Amino acid sequence: MHLAVALNFTQKEGVSLPDEIDLLPPGQTVAGIDGRSWKNPGNDKIIDFFKSRGTQLPVDINHSTEIKAHSGDPSPAQGWITDIYESGGGLKGKVAWNASAESEVGGGRYKYISPAFVYDKQGIIRGIKSAGLVNHPNLSELAALNSESSGLDEGGSMKKIAEALGLPEDATEDQILTAMNAMKEKNKVALNMADYIPRADYQLALNRAETAEQKLKTREEEEFKTALNSELDKGVESGKIAPASRSFYEKTVTTAEGLEEFKKFVDGAPTVVATNNENLDKKPSGDQVALNAEEEALAVQLGYSKEEAIKVFRS
Description:
Layout: E1 20-24, E2 29-31, E3 37-39, H1 43-53, E4 57-61, H2 64-67, E5 79-87, E6 90-97, H3 101-106, E7 112-119, E8 125-134, H4 154-164, H5 173-187, E9 189-190, H6 199-237, H7 246-252, H8 256-268, H9 277-281, H10 293-302, H11 306-314
Parallel strand pairs: 4-8
Antiparallel strand pairs: 1-6, 2-3, 4-5, 5-6, 7-8, 7-9
């Protein structure tokens, strides 16, 4: 059962902001409301990560440091985590608040803390990167600072995803996917997207974008195959490559760069095969099994012996 303890700070004379905040709950597993979970390798390792970097960690609003800063948008800190330490099995941070935090936190505009942490491919947390003031936390075990936001419909959620990623609200699914992947690869930070949108809407957007990406990949493969066949036809028709060599080139030219090299090779190659249809249809007999000049040159480049090359080109 998840419990959240509300501290409910109010703006009264003599009442100050909390000088410490919860960063991670006790236990080896850190579970989010959105269904994701991570492993705590030990509070001492996370503390060592903080000390090794030698910098204070920002406390911002809605993870602006992790989202807006990368696109050059303002991401002001409301305070700075100057130290982290173990307490009751969990991790806490000592905070030096800025003057603006008096209205944001003390005034009750934001109630919860949501940590953003670095983790690896196995889901093991490596360290804390920042913390955000939010109204819809993903880690409900952490103590509250001081109203929950309402849900969004599907269209509103899509716009919210784009906004959170620093994209225009009419951004396409491909653009959203590209921005998500760039963020993930650059920082590998758990941004707790449940702070912004319902999990189901986030997954729906991701699935749509992945489908669009697969369709684009299939179209590119088909276009490459069409272009390669066109160049092979030209090479055969011009007598620059032997018909028997066509399947060899079709198997070895597999990239756009390779196709460009093949075009250059054909352009500079001499005519080695008769170009009239009657002669092209005839199969070599007797000593005509020998390699032509083009095939001999290619065999040398590929490191084939004469016998090996004959098997490849004549099979």
